[in-house]
Design brief:
Shape of chain A: globular
Largest sheet of chain B: 8 strands, mixed
Distance between the termini of chain A: 49 Å
Strand content of chain B: 5-15%
Low-confidence stretches of chain B: none
Helix content of chain A: 25-40%
Distance between the termini of chain B: 22 Å
CATH topology of chain A: Rossmann fold
CATH superfamily of chain A: HUPs
Helix content of chain B: 40-55%
Structural class of chain A: alpha/beta
Structural class of chain B: alpha+beta
Shape of chain B: globular
Oligomer: heterodimer
CATH class of the largest domain in chain B: Mainly Alpha
Low-confidence stretches of chain A: none
Number of helices of chain A: 8
Mean pLDDT of chain B: 95
Radius of gyration of chain B: 21 Å
Largest sheet of chain A: 9 strands, mixed
Number of strands of chain B: 10
Strand content of chain A: 25-35%
CATH class of chain A: Alpha Beta
Chain lengths: 250, 381
């Protein structure tokens, strides 16, 4: 049985610089988002428990083959990649249809796991869209997952309650941040990652009719951070200011 | 010319950074106070492949190259330079066995070291000599299948942990130096109270006492007569490690000073608006950039250290001296920038200044490195 983990390569946000309130993306290396790493860790834990195979799928530009080594070092067995520089201009709906088609081409799938949102745009749509396209049951906001035979039991953390649901396999699971602590890959795993099996396709191989991008980005500006310039005259005033800013006393 | 790291190099750096920042950095003060890094930390580092980075996988290493070693050790030193220093001494111990040990010795001594179950070291220095082979007084007397070692070794790292130690001693029959692999805490092995240092006390430094310490002839490294050669060949690992430690100190001092400058206001304006402060920032940045170029170029040369040991030794001396001296300069400039805060133990730069002073002093003082460098240049290397 296979566990698909869908990942998105994003610019390394720790190295991102802001100039004139816009992100400077030149020469910023790509990496995987934090929640995607939670999704991968869940897949690897299920593999260790159930002896499944973990296949990472992803669509991205020409850097993807390199970026995905991070997931392979993190415990995935192989990768199925769609590499095309047009992908960077696509919206969530288009990406979802591409990933759904890639999943359709795989056999014997138990679960397809997604992070609830990517570390860059965080639209939070792709996992649910893929489930709809495939006609598979889905569970979002997953905080714990277990598999028993042909069903998955998922605990969902909702705003006002904790919900437990059972889904027939194959199913889509969309995980929340903090679901687990992703393991740190060892140096040996890193050096072997590039030698693990991979299949690479392009947009032409999928022969999907591209729908027009329905989202227009009007602006993408960093918030302005300004000093508040509050003048205080005593410790009590300082404490009041901190409390009103939401800082809690310990 | 490509200055970008490969994906593998950047992931090795990331693994070292992630582990070090979560597991090592938060416990720096605790371990300094205890004057010890717990042994299990080295096992954790071993699980991640960080204890034997440049050595072959078949001997318990990670096959990550010398460049991988430098990138990872720099990150470990950024988080906790005491742990970094212990790893550097350990890798010097591994390097000598890897380079000069026979197959049986490599299979016996290196895998537990790569797993971090053992922490290795190397002992040359004595109370009467730092690096002059003629003054070595520690003796080895052959008796049947054993050598009997007697003498004292000074300032030895990792002497308190289980593992092996390469000891350079004088064979009394031939009057030549040999390297003897000793299991620490075997009969006849004891250590002093730890030395109190100016900084990095969690990395223990001890004197070693050898009193009729028996070493099997099968645990003699290479041949009798090669002891000083082993030191010369292996010390490049130590020097490059020290360069990593110094690099980490310089980077941290720069980061701390820059952050301070960006936050500190003078008459309502950030002090970065003043040219005097800008000059300090620029001078630190120039030195850090130059140091990292030297360090990484030397690391790439280290990848071919077996094929070209003299070139590696030349660059190890250059790198160690250049980076460690500049790290002292950078921390001094950082201290100048943060003014009185630099003197306070509540702020990081006070500690970094004490750490920076360590690195020009160890593995050979600056003038010695320059003499070595000049000799290699004059020899056409």
């Amino acid at each position: 049985m296979k566990c698909i983990v869908a990942l998105k390569q994003i610019p390394d946000l720790q190295q991102l610089r802001i100039r004139n309130r816009e992100p400077v993306l030149n020469d910023i290396p790509y990496t995987l988002g934090a929640i995607d790493k939670n999704a991968l860790e869940l897949g690897v834990q299920l593999k260790e428990e159930l002896d499944w195979e973990v296949v990472v799928i992803s669509a991205g530009n020409e850097e993807l083959e390199d970026t995905i080594k991070e997931a392979l070092a993190g415990g995935a067995d192989n990768s199925f990649l769609l590499i095309d520089n047009q992908i960077d201009q696509m919206d969530s709906a288009e990406i979802a249809s591409l990933l759904a088609e890639m999943i359709r081409r795989s056999e014997d799938i138990g679960l397809a796991i997604f992070g609830e949102g990517s570390g860059d745009n965080y639209t939070g749509q792709v996992g649910s869209r893929v489930a709809e396209i495939l006609g598979w049951p889905q569970a979002g906001y997953a905080t714990s997952v277990s598999v028993d035979g042909s069903t998955a039991k998922v605990t969902r953390a909702l705003d006002d309650c904790i919900e437990e649901v059972e889904l027939d396999l194959p199913a889509v699971i969309i995980v929340s941040a903090g679901l687990n602590t992703p393991r740190i890959p060892s140096v040996m795993q890193i050096l072997k990652a590039g030698k693990l099996p991979k299949e690479i396709i392009t947009l032409d191989d999928l022969s999907l009719v591209s729908s027009a991008n329905q989202i227009e980005t009007v602006s993408n500006l960093a918030p302005i951070a300004e000093r508040k310039q509050i003048k205080i005259g005593s410790v009590d005033e300082l404490l009041n200011c901190l409390e009103s800013a939401g800082v809690e006393r310990r | 010319m490509d200055f970008d790291l490969t994906k593998e190099q950047s992931l090795i750096q990331k693994t070292a950074k992630e582990y070090a920042q979560t597991a090592l950095a938060p416990r720096f003060d605790e371990w300094e106070e205890a004057h010890n890094v717990p042994l299990e930390i080295f096992s954790e580092l071993g699980d991640l492949g960080l204890m034997g980075l440049p050595f072959p996988e078949q001997y318990g290493g990670s096959d990550a190259g010398f460049d991988g070693y430098v990138l990872a050790v720099e990150q470990i030193c950024m988080a906790n330079n005491a742990v970094g220093s212990a790893i550097i001494a350990h890798n010097l111990g591994m390097a000598i066995i890897n380079a000069f040990g026979n197959e049986e010795q490599k299979m016996k001594f290196l895998p537990p070291a790569g797993r971090g179950e053992q922490v290795l070291s190397f002992a040359f220095t004595e109370p009467g000599t730092g690096s002059d082979p003629k003054q070595i007084t520690c003796t080895a007397k052959k008796e049947g299948d054993y050598y009997i070692l007697n003498g004292t070794k000074r300032f030895i790292s990792n002497a308190q942990y289980p593992g092996t130690l390469g000891i350079v001693a004088r064979d009394v029959d031939s009057d030549e130096l040999g390297t003897f692999i000793v299991e620490k805490f075997c009969e006849g092995y004891s250590i002093s109270e730890r030395w109190e240092k100016i900084a990095l006390n969690a990395q223990g430094l001890y004197d070693i006492y050898l009193k009729d310490c028996k070493v099997s002839t099968s645990d003699v490294l290479g041949n009798i007569g090669e002891g000083f050669f082993h030191l010369e060949a292996g010390i490049g690992y130590g020097k490059m490690g020290i360069a990593c430690s110094a690099m980490a100190v310089a980077q941290q001092a720069y980061d701390a000073a820059l952050e301070y400058a960006q936050q500190k206001l003078h008459r309502g304006k950030p002090i970065t608006k003043f040219q005097a402060v800008q000059l300090l920032i620029a001078e630190m940045a120039e030195k850090i950039e130059a140091c990292r170029l030297v360090l990484y170029k030397s690391a790439m040369i280290g990848n071919n250290s077996i094929k070209n040991p003299h070139l590696f030794a030349k660059y190890a001396a250059l790198s160690k001296n250049f980076v460690s001296q500049n790290a002292v300069d950078v921390t001094r400039l950082a201290m100048e920038l943060v003014a009185s805060y630099g003197l306070m133990k509540d702020y990081k730069i006070e500690r970094l200044y004490r750490e920076a002073i360590v690195f020009p002093q160890v593995e050979g003082v600056p003038h010695m490195q320059q003499v070595i460098l000049a000799n290699y240049i004059l020899a056409g290397i």
